[in-house]
Design goal:
Largest sheet: 6 strands, parallel
Strand order of the largest sheet: 3-2-1-4-5-6
Helix content: 25-40%
Number of helices: 7
Number of strands: 6
CATH superfamily: Flavin prenyltransferase-like
CATH class: Alpha Beta
Shape: globular
Radius of gyration: 16 Å
Structural class: alpha/beta
Number of domains: 1
């Protein structure tokens, strides 16, 4: 169900846009939504068409279940959505995972979907944009696009595993990455075992 009635007033609670694109690793976006819900952050979710396939292939979640984790959900082709305008105030946006196609659209300003349009708006309004690119190996175009975005202030945060916390499961690895992304927005959580030295 597409959310149609979102308040247009200045927000009084933390508000973030979350994009889930078609790269492998849909679980990062799902766990991010769960963590943001626990932190009482208002979320505005876009799931690309490719991500809808990835979610059903890689996880035990249905599309409807993922939508329900968000405060508001928008169709990827809804270019008139609230989040397509800079007047709709947010803390920024996280794309988890971020496909190379979405990354390229954001880097070039060629916004063919609501996901890339929302990211473009975050950029033009000078808000925080965090991308979790999920691809390997990377060729020169991937790297140039990432550098272009980094030069504009975008945070490129590939979901790389951290082993110093001695994770016992894939779930712990995913949650560690999600926690580190939440750190970038100063959102409190209990997902990360902090490094305390040796």
């Amino acid at each position: 169900m597409i959310e149609q009635h979102v308040p247009r007033t200045t927000y009084h609670v933390p508000r973030l846009i979350v994009g889930i694109s078609g790269a492998s690793g849909a679980i990062y976006g799902i766990e991010l939504l769960k963590a943001l819900k626990d932190a009482s952050v208002e979320t505005h979710l876009i799931i690309s068409k490719s991500a809808q396939i990835t979610i059903t292939h890689e996880t035990d979640y249905s599309l409807a279940q993922v939508q329900k984790l968000a405060s508001h959900f928008y169709a990827s082709g809804d270019m008139a959505a609230h989040i397509s305008s800079g007047s709709f105030k947010t803390m920024g946006m996280i794309v988890a995972p971020c496909s190379m196609r979405s990354l390229a659209e954001i880097a070039t300003g060629c916004t063919t979907t609501l996901l890339s349009r929302a990211a473009d708006v975050v950029l033009k309004e000078r808000r925080r944009l965090v991308l979790l690119p999920r691809e390997t190996p990377l060729h020169s175009i991937h790297l140039r696009n990432m550098l272009t975005l980094s030069d504009m202030g975008v945070i490129i945060a590939p979901p790389l595993p951290a082993f110093y916390s001695k994770p016992a499961s894939v779930d712990e690895l995913v949650k560690h990455t999600v926690g580190r992304v939440l750190d970038l927005f100063d959102i409190e959580h209990g997902l990360v075992r902090r490094w305390e030295g040796v």
